[in-house]
Amino acid sequence: MAQAATELVIATVNNGHMIEMQKLGKHFEQANPDIKLKWVTLEEGTLRQRVTTDIATKGGQFDVMTIGMYETPIWGKKGWLQEVKTDAAYDADDLLPAMRNGLSVDGKLFAVPFYGESSMLMYRKDLADKAGVKVADKPSWNDIKDLAAKIHDPKNGVYGICLRGKPGWGDNMAFLSTLVNTHGGQWFDMQWKPQLESKPWKDAINFYVDLLKSYGPPGSSANSFNEILALTNEGKCGMWVDATIAASFVSDPKQSKVADKMAFAQAPTMVTPKGANWLWAWSLAIPSGSKKVDAAQKFVTWATSKDYIQLVAKTNGWGAVPTGTRKSTYASAEFQKAARFAAAEKAAIDSANPNDSTLPKSPYVGVQFAAIPEFQAIGVTVGQQMSAALAGKTTVDAALKASQAAAEREMRKAGYYK
């Protein structure tokens, strides 16, 4: 009698690379006829809520979860995730150190990176050339503001710069945390006191609101990654600072009207280069409550393997492979040829250090977040305030004051200080 197939329920995010993984999942099923894949694809914010609730309540709804660098160290420490067991063929030493370290607790891997990213500047070289500006490999935010002013041409549907404004700890706050870092700021000082009314926060948020009000598209407070990606691909953004993963989409002529005009540089800096570009990996993890651990291990190692990268390259070309995870990808001559952004992306990832990302010493790990359970709630609240300031519904000072009060309340309630 044929054995009933094991059904793996996989929770994932609706990003391009993940959608591709679902299409290629049939190759995994062909190689493992006893395993069936069932996909639950969700928008980023919804995904986070669903998997967080499921794992905290030991709901057991999912066998594989797509989680990030924020959740992995916290949940791994709590014993909520299975350690990912890899074999010699998987070659864990090939994983980029920044990625491997960000997904490990005490040297044990609790999630494997499906794609990794930092942040970078993506810009229209044709518009910069026309304005007579040569963009440096490591620009300052003042350079960016000057260029935005020169290329901003709303009458002809081109905005000087597009940046995230949609509220969320992984939406606008991912970007804004890096802007605050490079202005010399931090989320918490060594006593875990929130620093939201400090000078670097005020400087950074005022700079951001002025920049987007002057040279951004209308309705910026509703834009996050996917919205700005669409605008950029339409040729409407002169510059965009966001996830390095976007480079593969904006330079793809099948998706972008300005693919051949895009150029890449490091994320801009202000007072310090520390923490100017974020570090993130969308990763696959197995909740400790899963009853199908062996099948899940098989799947997560398949989807993050060198073979999977080769499969995507063969199917869609080297320009479409998930990046930011393996040294071997960057060593590939075909990849370097297909991905004009490869060198800038790797430089950004290698320069990000989640253990030393702020000018003043900080007690937390993370570049664009603090890897503590309370951060999610704080980041969401602050994100809403920043979005309101950007939309002109409140002042920057009032938004930061309300943010500080909310953050202090959370930290006190959690027992960080009396």
What does the secondary structure layout of this molecule look like, with pairings?
Blueprint: E1 6-13, H1 16-31, E2 35-42, H2 44-56, E3 64-67, H3 71-77, H4 97-102, E4 104-105, E5 108-109, E6 112-124, H5 125-130, H6 141-151, H7 172-182, H8 199-215, H9 225-233, E7 239-243, H10 246-250, E8 262-266, E9 279-285, H11 293-303, H12 306-316, H13 327-331, H14 333-338, H15 342-351, H16 375-390, H17 396-413
Helix pairs in contact: 7-8, 16-17
Overview of this protein structure:
InterPro entries: Bact_solute-bd_prot1, SBP. Belongs to the bacterial solute-binding protein 1 family. It is found in: Periplasm. Pfam families: SBP_bac_1 (PF01547). Its main location: periplasm. The protein is of the alpha+beta class and 418 residues long. The chain folds into two domains: 6-117 and 280-349, Periplasmic binding protein-like II (D-Maltodextrin-Binding Protein, domain 2); 119-278 and 354-414, Periplasmic binding protein-like II (D-Maltodextrin-Binding Protein, domain 2, 3-Layer(aba) Sandwich). Helix content is 43%, strand content 13%. It contains 17 helices and nine strands. The strands form two sheets. Strands 1, 2, 3, 6, 7, 8 and 9 form a seven-stranded mixed β-sheet that branches. The protein has a two-stranded antiparallel sheet with strand order 4-5. α1 links the parallel β1 and β2 (35-42). α7 (172-182) packs across α8 and α16 runs antiparallel to α17.
